[in-house]
Design goal:
Oligomer: heterodimer
Largest sheet of chain B: 4 strands, mixed
Strand content of chain B: 25-35%
Strand order of the largest sheet of chain B: 1-6-8-2
Distance between the termini of chain A: 37 Å
Strand content of chain A: 25-35%
Order of helices and strands of chain A: EHEHHEEE
Structural class of chain A: alpha+beta
Largest sheet of chain A: 5 strands, mixed
Structural class of chain B: alpha+beta
Shape of chain A: globular
Number of strands of chain A: 5
Shape of chain B: globular
Helix content of chain A: 25-40%
Radius of gyration of chain A: 12 Å
Strand order of the largest sheet of chain A: 2-1-5-3-4
Number of helices of chain A: 3
Order of helices and strands of chain B: EHEEEEHEEEHEEH
Number of strands of chain B: 10
Distance between the termini of chain B: 30 Å
Amino acid sequence: MRVRILYLASLREQLGKTGEDLEISPATSTVAGLRTLLMARGGPWQSALAQGKALRVAVNQEMAQPTTSVKSGDEVAFFPPVTGG
Amino acid sequence: MPVRIQTDDFDAGKEIASLRRGNPKIGAVASFIGVCRDANDGTAVTKMTLEHYPGMTEKALEKIVAEAKSRWNVIDVLVVHRVGELKPTDQVVLVVVSGGHRGDAFAACEFVMDYLKTRAPFWKKEETPQGARWVEARSSDDEAAQRWEPPKRNTAY
């Protein structure tokens, strides 16, 4: 299945990418699964997405949890904790 | 629209007048303006760039406004948040809440800001004499937002 991934703010700079369309196996059906898949690319992916790093994820523009499911066609955004206001 | 994201500055007086629209049910208007400072964490800040996640930002703010309206007895809520390049002394964010009485208007206004700080997808990057840096989220902002759970009504006035 295909998902659209976005990288925002400092994460975009660390990864050198604004986003990508990614074909993933249906086995990667959660936010945590997707994060693990991306970390496996190594280098900045490994360090920027490492467990313990303060990271937020939104699925279809709603804040998500590691257990939130990811379906075909979803928009998944990875970003640091927010600092507006 | 109760929520606006814009690069342009805002005029709080005009926004408040527009929110009131001569509504005689309004007995109180509480407002907050966030302003860009010239220093953060002990370092001079010469300018900052605010970025957001278009689409999610509006949804997140509308949800916060809806929650404020469900928790307190208020009439209208307006949030205007700027994005793009800002300099010290520039206005960043405006929250206006109108209601029958000040207690609920004050509480709802503070709630909207506390939730905006922790739930709306905005990020600040500061220019300092040592170079650019992304602003780190503060645990004090998380604590401020947690004060509002569970829901409670401000009946002190």
